[in-house]
User: Which sequence fits this backbone?
């Protein structure tokens, strides 16, 4: 038997009980009279509750997702109210969690955005532009409660005004502090679900994912570092995520907004067997070989691409193949292979003698000395009716991956690429004669942010938003 | 104040209360003493409940999803138990719903499969083969509790043994009855969530969706009839689905297992604007024009495809363009256009005089008479460095759709198709210079069943399965 009494009457009630039940207590028929202090009562009251199944489910679900433990429950058969006893310190959070569940009736997501640069900034603008539609059509309420760069961060419990986030960062931003930021996003506010959106390419930030998932934060990211980093760390994250009921989405790590990871997952989950994933995963390298058609030398095409801004400031970052290797590692692991980036054979297009060049300028200057070799390869391919393409391959049968320059017949889908398109072909037991192919721009702020945004919405749907 | 007493003591307790509170009752300080008969008590008891937040949420959620109303709740502060009072008739269902939630701790889905033919049968086999992995890795428990064909149906509350479903259908199947089947899948069993999977192409079955969604059944289907049928009916379904928190997925209506609908949804939901969707949506028509390269007449290519089983028994079903028009209608509506199949301009490849042929044989015999026109078109295209392709177009800017034979430059992705591949290009605000393209087999039992299966798993994830 338990009941709640006002704090000031606790002493009197306790004495009265002890005196009234003295006999039973000394006789051992009652074990003790216990007083649990610092409790609060939260009641949901409403006329329609009696005839609406699911009110208590919603009520308790809201409390559970806000991580609030319930000491006692009472509901009378008149069914006009549900009353719970909780810890006093949880009281405001509980009230808000329940309010936001019932009155707004929305799937509300608290978001912390890390890295408000080109990608993160575009994402914030996309969310701003789409917020009303999401609220109206899908009952999804996205609240960016924190934005942090490397030096400054901006926090707001009720949600940052996204029409002015750039000014607000400048005017009201405080010193960035990742621990404080994490604490804030996870912490004491009224939104039951929180997600960290890492828009950086930073390995240090990726190393926080485990801790975030452990603390019940969902994670969405285009950052390749966690999934292509040390195998053990990756497996640890995936294992925790599976067990913890938190979600970890990273569609934009491969092909930006193109549906690559989700397609692969769909195939695997429904029991298809991946035989081979082969693709052109770098927009830059796609552009270079789509335009290396015999009219100019390879170094000229590189110079042209650099000037047009299609390469990294130092084109060696593209030509080394590391970025492609990361994507191959991600897809291989997603397919169940235990590959490590370090053991993946990668054919670098940076000539050995130029790897040590002190600057991009020096590299560009010396690159023409090495044109002959690639020209020869191109001509040999051409003579055989083929073209050169820089591809990544996951060979799921032989359980290995490679990144290399390969030759393709001119009627192969990879030979017919234009612009800086990515193309990815899945050969599986079901798609064996003809592969499943996805093609399109695999880089750029708008499409990358779109891919991240899509993951955030998937999270909202997984958390119960209507579809 | 309310309390539960055993049925046989109700009379005595009621009399005692009435006598004890007579004064208060006559004085109007108490309104009445009410007896609510036929109730049952359901209690969840466990040592660890005190320290595990979310137990009550899970408990009440299980009851809510099973549509069980709760009369009264009690939880003592010892927190070893939660006790609820429910209608006696709900008692077994409630017990089972809660049991399956707590002990199995799985997302359990009751499924009714309609149409166990080529597609539905393949789906059942895929589910059988994948069940263990889903249970193990995703804690998803798929229970096929009903399979119905047009003449026979098989029901099993605990789940049909999928290793023997074909024999069981023959040996134990009863007369098919859609109302009874629906009632059974929705009805009195212990699995809180139910989905109807319509693997037919039947308009009558599609006309049940509204009723199913209304009754809280989720719907998954490759059947194009509902979404390409009367606009009003489609809008009514979508409207209900949004409001009812049930899910309605139909990825396989376009491109079978290719990620078409999900990709389109992802773009729209994240605020991208669709400008144009253009594609080759018929594997048969893809095959015909990929092979109509000047070496044979069009009718010869059709005859060859018919013999290889690539066309419908009556090739007019493919050549009429109706199937493509249905897919265009589906994509147009998904994009927000209010198009009707009837008003969509469709260029039929069945010559007018042959529309009335009594048989496929007569049609095939007379088709060569009309070869000249298409040959001429092909040669004109060829002379301009182009090819003929039978495409469907959603022009979201002009708000219209078309199905027609068009010419494409030889370096266009549509010109480079092989086999019976589908190809779909999305041109959007984000994918403007270069479209997002999905290509691959868009028909066949394995890939179509895979697409349906993928939707079923999406449903499970939306209902709370870990990802």
Assistant:
């Amino acid at each position: 038997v338990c009941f709640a009494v006002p704090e000031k009457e606790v002493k009197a009630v306790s004495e009265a009980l002890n005196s009234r039940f003295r006999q039973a207590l000394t006789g051992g028929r009652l074990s003790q009279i216990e007083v649990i202090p610092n409790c609060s009562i939260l009641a949901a009251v409403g006329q329609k509750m009696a005839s609406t199944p699911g009110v208590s489910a919603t009520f308790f679900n809201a409390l559970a997702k806000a991580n609030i433990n319930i000491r006692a429950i009472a509901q009378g058969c008149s069914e006009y109210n549900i009353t719970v006893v909780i810890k006093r310190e949880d009281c405001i959070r509980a009230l808000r969690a329940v309010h936001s569940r019932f009155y707004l009736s929305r799937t509300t997501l608290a978001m912390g955005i890390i890295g408000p640069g080109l990608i993160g900034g575009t994402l914030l603008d996309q969310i701003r532009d789409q917020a009303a539609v999401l609220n109206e059509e899908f009952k999804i309420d996205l609240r960016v409660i924190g934005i942090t760069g490397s030096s400054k961060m901006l926090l707001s419990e009720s949600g940052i005004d996204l029409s002015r986030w750039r000014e607000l960062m400048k005017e009201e931003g405080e010193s960035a502090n990742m621990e404080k930021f994490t604490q804030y996003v996870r912490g004491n506010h009224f939104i039951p679900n929180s997600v960290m959106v890492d828009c950086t390419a930073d390995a240090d930030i990726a190393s926080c994912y485990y801790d975030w998932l452990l603390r019940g934060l969902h994670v969405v990211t285009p950052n390749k570092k966690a999934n292509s980093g040390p195998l053990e760390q990756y497996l640890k994250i995936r294992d925790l995520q599976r067990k913890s009921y938190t979600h970890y989405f990273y569609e934009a790590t491969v092909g930006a907004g193109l549906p690559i990871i989700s397609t692969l997952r769909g195939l695997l989950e429904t029991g298809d067997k991946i035989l081979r994933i082969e693709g052109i995963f770098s927009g830059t390298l796609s552009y270079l070989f789509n335009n290396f058609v015999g009219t100019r030398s390879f170094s000229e095409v590189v110079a042209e691409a650099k000037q047009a801004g299609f390469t990294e400031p130092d084109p060696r970052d593209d030509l080394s193949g590391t970025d492609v290797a990361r994507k191959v590692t991600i897809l291989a692991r997603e397919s169940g292979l235990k590959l490590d980036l370090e053991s993946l054979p990668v054919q670098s297009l940076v000539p050995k003698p130029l790897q040590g060049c002190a600057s991009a300028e020096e590299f560009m200057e010396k690159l023409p000395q090495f044109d002959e070799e690639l020209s020869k390869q191109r001509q040999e391919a051409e003579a055989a009716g083929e073209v050169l393409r820089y591809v990544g391959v996951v060979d799921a049968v032989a359980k290995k991956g490679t990144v290399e320059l390969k030759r393709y017949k001119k009627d192969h889908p990879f030979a017919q690429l234009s612009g800086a398109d990515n193309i990815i072909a899945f050969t599986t037991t079901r798609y064996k004669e003809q592969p499943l192919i996805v093609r399109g721009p695999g880089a750029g702020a708008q499409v990358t942010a779109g891919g991240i945004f899509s993951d955030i919405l998937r999270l909202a749907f997984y958390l119960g938003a209507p579809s």
Observations:
- The two ends of chain B are 44 Å apart (CA to CA).
- Chain B has a mean pLDDT of 90.
- Chain B touches chain A through 85 residues (CB under 8 Å).
